[in-house]
Structure formats: structure tokens, C-alpha cells
Amino acid sequence: MERHNIAFLGTGLMGRPMAHRLLQSGFSVWVYNRTPEKAQWLAEKGAVVCRTPADAVKEAPVVLTMLSDAEAIRSILAQIPGEIMKGRTLVQMSTILPQESIEFSKKMHTLGANYVEAPVLGSIPEAQAGNLFVFVSGDVEQYRRLLSIFESFAKQVLYVGEMGKAATLKLAFNQLIASHMVAFSVSFGMLRRAGVDTDLFMRILRESALYAPTFDKKLPRVLERNFGNPNFPVRLMLKDVRLILKEVKARGMASASVEALEKLFADAASRSYADGDYSAVYQTIDPE
To answer: Quick one: 141 and 9 in the same domain?
Structure first.
């Protein structure tokens, strides 16, 4: 599509690098963040920082949201008069329930607006490098129209069909992310407490079919018990695990494994790690 203005609502951990990639790709970006100071860096890169969500949206035919949860999205939309949204396209990129996404789709259509769900897989380094995965559900023509926007921060953009499927796909991946970290923490803690050489464990693991790159990415944090400067904090992982638990139960599946994840990440949050990297779940599993 042409390099039209884009409104970007939510410039936190992921929103900031994504909006920056749009600027680098030649788009004019109008940003809003509840805490204006978090958007100042983008202003220095060429973005227009707006006082209200409505101020940002009225300047752009395409509106991207990267907010913490569905409640935050509802709060933002409540601040935008319906007549302003008419004819615009809302692209919702956060991790929410499929049913919540369908709710937003219906609301936008009643306002005469388009709606696309497009959650992303990846964290801050991938967003900075333009290496995110973007999963898209909704009207296929809207997907094609928005492709150049997504390609600004993604290495793969995948159209996955009707509304709700992209949201489900994102939840499925986040379940794996949470489970990988918990499984690694249990194994590593067992070995550490038994005095088994953890370097040997890692060498074998890297050569096995069990290996996932996440294990090496999180290894320094586990070894040093340093969970500051998170790419993805415990509080957001806990939010997502709770969404996964709701979805698993709604689908009539066994939920015990996800309930265990929820308890472990809730414990990590209660131990003052809510804003630490999600690998801080190790502290719950193998406390000092």
C-alpha cells in the first residue's frame, strides 16, 4: 500500500520497536501512549506524539493497537468517538482471546470500520530486527492491503483464515513458550541440586532432538538469577497463561498442565518478579 499515515496506539515494550520499524520503512506514524514519556523516543525518530487516542486516529486510515489486554483495548476505543473510526481499519496485534477479537470485529463493523486481528510471535530483539511472525485473520483483501505494513517488522506474515484463528494460534505458541521455560527450569534445578555438571547437560541437550534455542537464550539469566530488563515480563506471561487456561477449558480439554503453569507464574509474580523476565519462574521452581 502507499505510505499513508498510521496511528499506533500503545508504545510499550513491543509497540516502540514496531512503530520505529514503520518509521524506518517510510510511513508517517502518529502515536499515543497512556504514559507520554514512553513515546518520547519515537518523537525523536520522527513520530508525532498525540495527546489522545482520537488525535492519533483522526490522522490515519490504518490504526494499529499493541496494548496489554482486551480491557486496555476497550478503554482506548472508548476514548475514540465512533464517527472517527468510520472507514478506517483497526489492526489488533495483542494477545487476547479469540472471542474477544470477534467482539472487537463486530464493534468495528457496527461503526463502519474494518477490523483485522494480527498478533505477533517474537519479542523485543525480533521486533527491532524486523524478524517477527505476524498471524493474520479477517478479510483477505484487507490482509493484502496491509501486507507492506506488516512486512516493516516481520520476517513472515501468515494469513490463517477467519476471525479468531490467529488469536488461537498465538495462544498455542505462548503455551509452548511458558511450558518450555518451566520444563527447562525443573530439569536444570534437579541437576544443580544433585551436583550434576550442568555444562554437560547443556552439551548433550544441544545435540539432542529435545533442544530449543530458548534454552540457551535463558541460560545466562538462570545461572546468574538475573531477571531484569525483560524482553517479556512475568506479568504478561501470567496474563497470557490465564487466557490459555480459559481457552483450553472452553474447548473442553484437560486443563491440569495449564493450571500448573498458572500457579507457577502467579507465584513468580507474587515474589516481586512481576516486572522481571518470564524466566524468573525458575526462582519459584528452584529457589535459593
So the answer is: yes
Burial 253-287 (b: 16+ CB within 10 A, else e): eebeebeebbebbbbbbeeebbebbbbbbbbbbbe
Q: Cα 224 to the chain's mean position, in Å? A: 26
**pTM of this structure:** 0.95
Q: Domain range spanning residue 221?
A: 168-285
Return d(Cα 144, Cα 20) in angstroms, integer: 22
What single DSSP character describes residue 233? B
pLDDT at residue 60, as a whole number? 96
Q: Strands, DSSP E only, in 113-177? A: 114-117, 120-121, 132-137, 154-161
Residue 90 pairs in a beta bridge with 63, 115
- Is residue 233 within 8 Å of 277, Cβ to Cβ? yes
Element (H, E) at 49: strand 48-49
Residues 146 and 257 placed together within one structural domain of the fold: no
Q: β-pairing, 89-92 with 62-65?
A: parallel
Q: Domain with 254 in it: what CATH number? A: 1.10.1040.10
Regions of the chain short of the pLDDT cut 70: 1-3
CA torsion through residues 235, 161, 109, 82, sign: positive
Domains held by the chain: number? 2
CA neighbor of 6 nearest in space, from 122, 188, 150, 111: 150
**Which residues make Cβ contacts (< 8 Å) with residue 256, sequence separation at least 6?**
none
- C-alpha span between 187 and 185 (Å, rounded): 6
DSSP one-letter code for 89: E
Residues 151 and 185 reside in one and the same domain: no
Please give the share of the chain, as a percent, with pLDDT higher than 90: 97
Residue with cell 499513508: 4
Separation between Cα atoms, residue 56 and residue 249, nearest integer Å: 38
72 and 57, same domain (yes or no): yes
